[in-house]
Records
---
Amino acid sequence: MKTVAIFGSIDASRTYEPAIRNAGGKTESCESLGAALAKVGFGLAVFSLQPFSSSNLT
């Protein structure tokens, strides 16, 4: 199985370039990405040192 690694975080208080257009939709976006990768046989590993990382979604 191939695995995609994602490093980073989504924090509405930070400035990103390009800008994040819908930080409130981070949970749905991460779920959609994970589902799409799984559908085509990829694993997913997500890493961040930030408290607002996608790995801390509830």
---
Amino acid sequence: MEGDSNRRGEEQKRFDLEDRTAKFGETVVSFAKKIPVSLVTQPMIPQLVRTATIAMARGKGTASDLRGDPSWKETDR
């Protein structure tokens, strides 16, 4: 019985992490839209957005998930 409760707790944490990751990505995109564009910030804005949303785009919860997973290096090109 305790194992079922533990599994549900872990599943709830996973969904919470997915929600928080998505919210973080949305917040960064919103913030990036407010950054004044200049010669300095122009290349930095897309990098910021890519970095903040890569976990969301790949369906990964944390950067630590990527350490042993070489698929994050694959591109869709």
